[in-house]
Prior knowledge:
- Chain A has about 80 residues and is mostly helical.
- Chain A is built from six helices and no strands.
- In chain B, a hairpin with a 5-residue loop joins strand 1 and strand 2.
- Chain B is about 70% helix and about 5% strand.
Amino acid sequence: MEQIYCTKQLDDIYDNKNWEEVIDDFQTKIDYHLYKVPVHERDDLEQEIKMKIIEKLNMLLDDKNDEESLPSFWDYVDCDDEYIH
Amino acid sequence: MDEKNIIEKFYEMNKKSLQSGVVRGFLSIKDNEELLELALIEGTEESKKNLDDRFKEFLLKLKVIKYVSSLIHYYTIDFDKRNNRRNSRFGLLLDAPHSNDTEGNPTPIIDLMFSSKSSEDAYYEGMETLGEWIEDEELYRIYNGLTDRQKSVLELIYLKGYSNKEVAEFYNVSPQNISSLHKRAVEKIRSYYKGNNQMG
């Protein structure tokens, strides 16, 4: 699922606020969890989850602006510049 | 040192960190691996920044996936809890007074709901059956082929939204019994529906 998701342009989704696509990506997971509640509650729950996802994605979108807080790739690896070059 | 050596050296030096989940996931995408090799060979700020931008984008996506996944998980639990709480607090008030009988004593609602017949008879009286809800002809035929017990268990679960436990209490049998009845009925429907088998 992560692989599928990563091939999409997140920026695109964010910029166009194309929430349906994001929600579609998670539909399988939502369906799986819907089975945990009684049949007649499922529609309500599905709708509430989707509303919540949109709300929270908006929040994460704001976070995106302080991208500086994300670690850099070079933080994860040692790269001895002098040796290589 | 030629290009291949640089890359090999890099992999050698970072064996451990390249095994870690995030970095490994990131490099498992072919484009990203190529970007890394480019950055190592060229060594320019620009190529490093390209890689870094891609990496941050990747982290952000992971963050979103992680966040939404746990959101769905915990929201479902929370929703279920909330519903159970509401249902237990605001149950149907069957013993609330409805009207006064001839002697002026209050009559609870529940007394007005059941006749002298057994509760099971009263339950079925005038009740819509699950069969009435089925639009698909084939499904209807299969449904009618089920035993009466199976039909009524399906009815209670899907039409009335009873849990296994509640159905079990209704029939005075064990919940496991209901669970297997339910399972067998659904399996039977599934195996005949859209299959080549004919109902016996």
